Amino acid sequence: MSRGKDRTIPLLTLGFSLLLAANFVMPRWLSFLVMVSLARSLVVIGIVVLMRSGLVSFGQGFFYCIGGYTAGIAGNYFGITDISLTLLISIAISALAGGLIGLLLCNYREIFFAMLTLAVSMILYSVIVKNPTLGGSDGFNVSPPHIFGISPDMADPGLSLPAVTCIVVYLVSVLIHRYFKSGLGYAGVAVRLNEIRVEYLGASPKVIVYSKYILAGVLASIGGTLIAYGTGHVDPELAYWTTSGEFVFVGLLGGVSHVAAPVIASVLFQVLRSYALDLAPYVWQMLLGFVLLMIILFLPEGLWSVIARLNPKRRGDESAP
């Protein structure tokens, strides 16, 4: 039975084009909020990559922190402030770190995988907190970035950084969508469903998990680099377990059926948190928890399930966790 034509990339192009154009007219506070949401959505996309393979990582803050501190160290100690170059350095470092740690983690599944990722992240947190060279528990400020060689004096960081973040997230979303549709993308779903059958087919579940862990780490580091430039500060909280847990929560909120789900969920989560904090500063956590609980109760497959219900032809095209 034929399925509807995949219009994901045209829709992503349209959506991010509108968001990019709106960046130049929306208030600065809203532009900053969207930028933070988009940068953090990259970490969530990485978590979704793992979730589609049946893995949950409570340690993506490890790579998120690597990306942030790479931006800070590169600018403060080596004078490297160009975003494109810093992103490449973050990708290289996170890929190397993910490759080394992944050699151990690819042997574990379920709660063991989740706890080991959490342990790795908390080790990095402890190292940074006790290291005055890295600013200790206070962290340190990040040098203003250059936008592809253009000085911040020539380009308004308040506009250019959100624009760059929007473009980066768009490119990553397109690539990850292609990845989900590739053989390696579907291999992760097969690993989640039945590892033994995957082995019978001649593929190695360990290699598949290993590659996905590295990919998720690279995505998290890109998000960390962008958030460091956007906020102008890094601290050990980037690697703390609550930060990683928040990413997992947003991943569950959006669902794993589509690459756009983490982006939408991340923006919604940031907006809800900002308004809850503004309207009820003393009980905002309770209000936020109540709203999110309702979403989980009535939309157990995530926000993307609403779109799937509206378009039944595409329902089942992607696998649920």
* Structure annotation, total helices: 13
- Rg, rounded, reads 19 Å
Report the portion of residues in β strands: under 5%
Q: What structural class should be given to the helix and strand makeup? A: mainly alpha
Low-confidence stretches: 316-321
Beginning-to-end CA distance, first to last residue = 23 Å
Q: Which percent bin holds the helix content?
A: 55-70%
Quote the average pLDDT: 84
The count of DSSP E runs of length 2 or more, i.e. the number of strands, is 2
The general outline is globular
N-to-C series of helices and strands: HHHHHEHHHHEHHHH
Q: Order of strands across the biggest sheet?
A: 1-2
> Biggest sheet, in brief?
2 strands, antiparallel
Write a structural description.
70% of the residues lie in helices and 1% in strands. The protein is mainly α. It has 13 helices and 2 strands.
Key structural traits:
mainly alpha; 321 residues; two-stranded antiparallel sheet; single chain; disordered C terminus
Reconstruct the topology from this structure.
Elements: H1 8-22, H2 28-51, H3 61-78, H4 83-105, H5 110-129, E1 140-141, H6 157-180, H7 183-193, H8 195-200, H9 205-231, E2 233-234, H10 241-254, H11 260-279, H12 284-298, H13 304-310
Antiparallel strand pairs: 1-2
Helix pairs in contact: 1-6, 2-6, 2-9, 2-10, 2-11, 3-4, 3-9, 4-9, 6-9, 7-9, 10-11, 11-12
